[in-house]
Task: inverse folding
């Protein structure tokens, strides 16, 4: 369903012929990880100590579902418009209609995720949220895709963040090893911050903005679990 809408319906809103628009989609039948090839390549060029990095930014537990992952940045880039866009669009493959996720991948130090004096003064998290808001609007330009999106019971904008200063494996503090002690502290702090519920906020069109910090897993919920959760939220 999503592949057909992206290939045939959305291009109309941008005056593009469907035949010239490619839908870069990958279907996942098992737990998977996602990376940002460009960002990871740049990081390893600038930081030799990161050459052994596994390049993972997001872990997804598909929970038995087949997940359609669209390279959203590449897809929207074909329309020749200056549209801010996030990295990924994810939803169930086939006819299942439980959850849709716009996702932005980020590998930054915490100081750049928060408001700062860097490339994104408002903070990378806020910048990514704006990219996802504009990504949603792309699918609301045509009535068919608007209905498709807005009738999902669970709509998520996911900010997937990895701090490249935090080691992949936990490090134990040891006597007389200052570097190991710093890494051990970073590991503990990172574990405490894997999912910051303070950043769960409601956006336009009932999308929930969520943050997940590597190595925490994003678990794809079953539709009955989603329904039960939404019912509890409505009762409050």
Result:
């Amino acid at each position: 369903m999503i592949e057909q809408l992206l290939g045939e319906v959305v291009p109309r809103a941008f005056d593009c012929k469907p035949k010239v628009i490619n839908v870069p989609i990958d279907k996942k039948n098992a737990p998977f990880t996602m990376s940002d090839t460009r960002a990871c390549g740049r990081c390893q060029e600038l930081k030799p100590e990161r050459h052994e990095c596994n390049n993972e930014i997001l872990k997804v537990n598909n929970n038995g579902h087949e997940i359609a992952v669209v390279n959203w940045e590449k897809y929207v880039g074909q329309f020749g418009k200056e549209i801010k866009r996030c990295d990924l669009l994810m939803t169930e493959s086939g006819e299942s209609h439980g959850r849709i996720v716009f996702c932005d991948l980020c590998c930054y130090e915490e100081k750049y995720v928060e408001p700062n004096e860097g490339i994104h003064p408002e903070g990378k998290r806020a910048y990514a949220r704006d990219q996802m808001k504009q990504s949603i609007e792309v699918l609301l330009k045509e009535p068919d895709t608007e209905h498709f999106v807005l009738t999902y019971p669970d709509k998520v904008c996911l900010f997937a963040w990895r701090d490249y200063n935090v080691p992949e494996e936990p490090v134990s503090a040891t006597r007389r090893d200052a570097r190991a002690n710093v890494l051990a502290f970073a590991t503990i702090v990172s574990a405490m911050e894997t999912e910051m519920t303070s950043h769960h906020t409601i956006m336009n069109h009932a999308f929930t903005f969520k943050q997940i910090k590597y190595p925490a897993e994003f678990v794809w919920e079953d539709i009955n679990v989603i329904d039960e959760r939404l019912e509890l939220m409505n009762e409050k």
User: Anything to note?
Assistant: The first helix runs from residue 2 to 13. Residues 180-195 have pLDDT under 50 and may be disordered. The two ends are 34 Å apart (CA to CA). The CA atoms of residues 77 and 188 lie 39 Å apart.
